[in-house]
Amino acid sequence: MSSVGLMVTCMNDALFPDTGRAVVTLLRRLGVEVGFPAKQTCCGQPMVNTGYLDEAVPLLRNHLDAFVGCEAVVVPSGSCAGSVRHQHRILAERSGDPGLVRAVEQAPPVYELTEYLVDVLGVVDVGAYFPHRVTYHPTCHSLRMLGVGDRPTRLLRGVRGLTLLELPAADECCGFGGTFAVKNADTSVAMGSDKARHVRESGAEVLVAGDNSCLMHIGGLLSRERSGIRVMHLAEILAATETTRTRTTEPEAVTAR
What we know:
Blueprint: E1 2-6, H1 10-15, H2 17-29, E2 32-36, H3 45-49, H4 53-67, E3 73-75, H5 78-95, H6 98-106, E4 110-112, H7 113-120, E5 133-136, H8 140-146, H9 151-157, E6 163-165, H10 180-183, H11 185-202, E7 206-209, H12 212-224, E8 230-233, H13 234-239, E9 255-256
Parallel strand pairs: 1-2, 1-3, 2-9, 3-4, 5-6, 5-7, 7-8
């Protein structure tokens, strides 16, 4: 049996716990043992992205301690997976600590969820059932930093009952960008409004993505427009079956350590 550590991310832990539960349900259904290192906290991305690199080093050290001994780390976020894979090495080298650099080099491999499903487990049909019209938004970090490509859409096409609709201008940024949405609110809302319009044009009932940060931004705009379109993390759709209601993906308690 494969074994992974779930890096649930700050946003999912605080605002979208159903996503973490769905990941556990999904991976266990596929025969993967999932652990939840209780020591985990922020990966440090907000600090790095706003220029506070030195302040992010303690978070890097904590991340390494939290996931030591895991075979692999699975993250339901292209943004946070990208941060760990690309920014942690920069932080370690900048710190001037050779031991920290070695620790980053020897850390368990980190996979965005769809990478783990398709590349490691070798599956595109995960036994899901979701009878709705869906469109997929490829978030910027998953698209540009990680290069997840068509893995998410291959998984969605394997879901029974699901109709996958094309999203116009899919590769355009939704405008969230973390602190960008705070510092450049007007621009962020304008970009998000364009994305919401494209979602409506797709004819979908549900907008799906691999990052809840982007879904929160787009979903807020869709809600204000009273569009009737829901937003859901990809993990929740992949965890759904005929015997589960929408958003009911309750696993057994996850092993904490």
